[in-house]
Amino acid sequence: MSFVGLRLFSALILRSRASGVAKDGPERAGASFETQAPLAPQDEGCGSRSAIALIVALAVVVLPAGSALAEIKSGSDFLSPELRRQQADETRNPGFFWVEQGRELFTRKPVGDGRACIGCHVEPQQSLRGAATRYPQVDAATGRLMNLEGRIEQCRVERQAQPAFGYETPDLLSLTAYLASLSRGLPMQVTTEGPAKPFYEAGRAFFERRQGQLNLSCQQCHDGLVGQKLRGDTISHGAGTGYPAYRLEWNEVGSLHRRLRACSLGVRATQFEAGGPEYLALELFLAARARGLPVETPAMRR
Predict the structure, then answer these.
(1) Is residue 47 part of a domain?
(2) Which one of 39, 155, 239, 298 is at 20 to 30 Å from 33 when CA atoms are compared?
């Protein structure tokens, strides 16, 4: 980086920290790196090098507070033409291996007296088509916000009398990918009013709040730097319509919350638990931003 670039880099960091502390108070300006949650192996791909690259990119474009974009685009719009073709081809998209395993799990009878998923959801291609477009949603019985993974876990425990799979396990990823794929091509239509409104507002606050040692917000990248390059990848609007997705970086299918944890690590902020309330609220906000965009699971991402 040139001397001028270094001066700009330093000025940005100082200004970013000062404005964050003044606006949000010390307690919200960023968590100490030493107090963050332990790093999961899958999050290691977005470490200090990503953080440095991110700051360099932000030295070029800084989003003014309150800025908004007119149109949110799918993550697929930022892929190369070849990756888009591969994503659309079920014989070349590796994510469909997880979909096929999920289809098999859906018909498999669990241990004991529990019924297979297909015992309740007959002809899922019709009965469950469109279901994924409405998640996350508030569960009427408990008042909790649930994404598709949470609903699967609830059914497994309460209906099948089986232990929960656990977030990011192969079986839960496969079932989620299969069920989401049944809505492939249908537009997202989550609800953000009524019981969902507090969760939506919490997700919006998370998206707009500066956080971590780098004192950056999701909004600064996914509104202000859309189309810019970061470590060879193109920054998108952060729409989660393709998850669970096959990321080339992971060489496997992973959940949206795995991706969110990696982003938190990239700005050296607290990594919340996958499936926890913080990322669930953010997932709802991202789904609302993506309203009208088609479900693409299993998408391919870099």
Answers:
(1) no
(2) 239
